[in-house]
Specification:
The structure holds two protein chains of two kinds.
Chain A (H helix, E strand, L loop, with lengths): L14 E4 L4 E5 L6 H15 L4 E6 L3 E6 L6 H13 L10 E6 L6 H7 L4 H8 L4 E6 L6 E4 L14 E4 L3 E5 L2 E4 L4 E3 L2 E5 L20 E6 L3
Parallel strand pairs in A: 5-13
Antiparallel strand pairs in A: 1-2, 2-4, 3-4, 6-7, 6-13, 8-11, 9-10, 9-12
Chain B lengths: L2 E7 L3 E5 L19 H10 L8 E5 L4 E4 L3 E9 L2 E3 L2 E2 L5 E4 L4 E4 L4 E9 L33 E3 L26 E6 L8 H7 L4 E7 L3 E5 L13 E2 L4 E3 L7 E3 L6 E2 L3 E5 L4 H5 L6 E6 L2 H22 L1
Parallel strand pairs in B: 12-20
Antiparallel strand pairs in B: 1-4, 1-11, 2-3, 3-10, 4-9, 5-8, 5-10, 6-7, 6-9, 12-19, 13-14, 13-20, 14-17, 15-18, 16-17, 16-19
The chains are: A alpha+beta, B alpha+beta.
């Protein structure tokens, strides 16, 4: 007789898709959801211990798995992932809490405020209120996707991305917020600046935030 | 350790590369490494190195190097007409350089990236487990930058066996760079393309646009329409074909962004990445869909080309 299943947590249905012949995408869901992200991070951690897995990186609700094609196949690994995902993930350790000072004076603050029918001060207040979760680190070195952003601040990305966003810019888009770690192109709305360095090339890992960490912004303006 | 090659002319964009830093992707750092892994590995094996030793990746033009100590090098990948003291030398072959010998490249005949392997490996700064140069962070390789005139290139370690020249990889075992068909597996979000666009993806000709570098190539060609909501960001891989809203696909290469939210409609198989690595702006290409089984066979067949080399050198 099979062991009784825990009924406390729904078992997420995992779908796997090939990403070429040496990687796959395991999709646990398609929603921006802390519980899904927790599961994705736990699944990536479990997968990294396998000998046939070279690297596993959690996305919001996915895990991208780079595997050794001499040791396994997409189908065999996909089956193992489904078994792993059916297990209840270990209790997540609370991520480290980072307090980040922000000068709310970004070049887009006025425009964001007027589009949202809020005062700039209210935008700053709403943005610095929640404790955000680091859903994933990626895109460019040190970039972290933080959220969920309060609904009152939700705006689509800029139509025309900037070709160069200064490092340290605090930005919002959709239900997400983040800090540009390096001068890069970017389409998010810049509402503030911080002096905290996100990309630390001489440390290993070379970034301040890790997936699962928590981030609290506070206004450093006088 | 000891400087063996002096850079007289650096070439357009010459960097130290190895097999990259796959473990850094969780920090958002691209995996990096040689764009054409086959040519990089082959060059190393031909001079008696481990495949993971660093080599020089030369883009569009080669450098001029003078041997300050005798050494063995091999030139693989693109054909830039390598010469020693003005005399043509064979590619994909270990070549002895005596003290004072001058390695030059006459002109680009085919391909975009040539590799120079040096017996003993090229010494570079190691960053996050790899000597690969990553310009954005100014780390790895030659102090995080491309080569410049006056640089001294050192040997990383004493070769395990005496360096022997004359080792060669026969032409039949090299990648068929002239055929710009990139074999690809259907991507996780292929269904976001309408049937007509799917047909175009795996049939139409695309051209590598001017926006093409080690991060990836934006492709010109028929506009492909995607549908559906924005995706939540997920981890990416080299070879992935992203489909931004504008309808111009992007083929991700070695220094690709590690995560993104554009649909991935296809992924180029590992056996076709050496061909992709040799493409330059203006080059035409087409994608051909293959199964995972076929991709597996193609990968084994390419690996066995190097396998014969490994056996031979043992």
């Amino acid at each position: 007789m099979p062991p009784p299943r825990s009924t406390r947590q729904p078992v997420p249905r995992v779908r796997t898709f090939p990403l070429g012949d040496t990687a796959l995408l395991a999709e646990l869901g398609t929603r921006l959801d802390t519980a899904l992200n927790t599961r994705a991070i736990a699944l990536a951690t479990a997968l990294k211990k396998r000998r046939d897995v070279r690297q596993a990186v959690a996305g919001y609700a996915t895990v991208t798995v780079h595997f050794d094609p001499d040791q396994t196949t997409h189908d065999a690994l996909g089956a193992a992932i489904k078994r792993l995902a059916a297990k209840r993930p270990p209790m997540e350790e609370p991520g480290r809490l980072h307090r980040i000072p922000v000068e709310y004076a970004g070049p887009d603050l006025e425009e964001v405020a007027s589009r949202l029918n809020l005062s700039p001060a209210r935008v700053a207040e709403l943005h610095s209120k929640p404790i955000y979760r680091v859903f994933l680190v990626g895109f460019v070195p040190g970039w972290a996707y933080l959220g969920p952003l309060p609904e009152e601040l939700e705006l689509p990305r800029r139509h025309v991305p900037r070709t160069q966003v200064p490092a340290g810019s605090v930005a919002i888009a959709g239900r997400q917020t983040g800090i540009y770690p390096l001068p890069t192109p970017g389409g998010w709305h810049l509402i503030g600046r911080t002096s905290v360095k996100l990309f630390l090339p001489d440390r290993d890992p070379p970034c301040l935030f890790r997936a699962g960490d928590r981030v609290k912004f506070f206004s450093s303006s006088r | 350790m000891t400087g063996v090659l002096r850079v007289v002319v650096p070439g357009l964009f010459t960097t130290v590369q190895d097999l990259g830093r796959p473990n850094a992707i969780a920090a958002g750092v691209p995996p990096g490494g040689a764009m054409d892994r086959f040519a990089h590995r082959a060059g190393n094996l031909l001079v008696g190195n481990a495949e993971a030793d660093a080599s020089l990746e030369c883009t569009i033009t080669g450098p001029t190097l003078v041997a300050t100590h005798s050494c063995v090098v091999a030139i693989t990948g693109a054909d830039f007409e390598p010469r020693v003291n003005g005399q043509p030398i064979p590619g994909w072959t270990g070549v002895f350089l005596g003290e004072g010998d001058r390695l030059t490249f006459a002109a680009r005949r085919s391909g975009g990236r040539a590799y120079i392997a040096l017996a003993g490996g090229i010494q570079g700064d190691r960053w996050l487990g790899s000597m690969s140069t990553y310009l954005m962070a100014a780390r790895g390789g030659m102090h995080g930058r491309n080569l410049k005139a006056g640089d001294e290139i050192d040997v990383a370690h004493q070769a395990a066996r005496p360096a022997v020249s004359g080792q060669t990889l026969p032409e039949r075992l090299r990648p068929r760079y002239a055929d710009h068909t990139l074999f690809a597996i259907a991507g996780p979000h292929l269904r976001r393309l309408d049937p007509e666009s799917r047909g175009l993806l795996f049939g139409a000709r695309f051209t590598v646009s001017r926006e093409a570098d080690r991060m990836g190539y934006r492709l010109d060609g028929p506009k492909l329409a995607t549908s559906g909501d924005e995706l939540l960001s997920f981890g990416l891989t080299a070879g992935a074909v992203q489909m931004p809203r504008g309808g111009q696909p992007i083929l991700l290469m070695a220094d690709h962004q590690t995560a993104g939210g554009y649909p991935v409609v296809a992924t180029v198989v590992s056996a076709s990445m050496p061909v992709a690595a040799q493409l330059l702006p203006g080059d035409e290409l087409q994608f051909a869909e293959v199964t995972l089984e076929r991709a597996h066979q193609m990968r084994l067949s390419l690996a066995s080309a190097l396998g014969t080399r490994r056996d031979f050198l043992r």
